[in-house]
Amino acid sequence: MGDEGYVKYTAEHTRGAAIAHPLWPVLNNARTQLYDLGLIGVYPNGIGFGNLSIRTAGDEFLISGTATGAKRELSPDEYCLVRSCDIEGNRVVSRGPIQASSESMSHGAIYRACPKAAAVIHIHSKAVFGGMLGDDLLSTPKDAAYGTPEMAHAISNAVGQSGNSHGQIVLAGHDEGVITWGVSIDEALALALKLYNKYNS
Ligand SMILES: [Zn+2]
Question: Global pTM?
Answer without folding.
Answer: 0.94
